[in-house]
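Lab meeting prep.
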Amino acid sequence: MPELDVVELINTYGFPIIASIGLGYFIYYVWKWVTDQVDPVIEESHMTLIQLIDRVRMLDNDLIRLKTKLDMLIQQQEKRHEIEYISDDDYVDPSADSER
């Protein structure tokens, strides 16, 4: 089987046909590379991304719970200080009444 040179192929079939075949092979090669090598990596990255999103949501929920608890504690502390302040104002010293 004689080897056909690129120049002989272009002379025989024409440049547009040979260029189309070359571009077709290039497209096939890129498609095969993407499906064999890139898609599995993207799928693995996608699963990792989903796991990270779930962890961030869990952390966000934990922060919301902690903030709610902290707000509740601050409110209770403010109420306790308010009650102590009111009770200090209402306090009457018994020795002060006897001096009047």
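Slide two material, second protein:
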Amino acid sequence: MKKGYGLLFIFLLVGLLTGSLVAHLLVTIEWLSFLTESMPISWSPQADLEFLKYDFDIQVRISLLSILGLIGAYWVYRRV
């Protein structure tokens, strides 16, 4: 079975979502705050070209558990 980039993307997305969900569930436990604190990364491209105007706001919040989810998903992808 040939593995492609699409399957890798799906695995990484599921791993990221799983890590984020676990971080969200553990946010009430104070001594695990180093795992659940997230760092926002934002990007806001915009342009006004007279005939076309756009304004996007993209924000990604990464926590240590999200990164661990990505690593775990890549590990599972390599095993499949």
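Talking points for slide two:
The mean pLDDT is 91.
Helices lie at 5-25, 33-36, 64-79.
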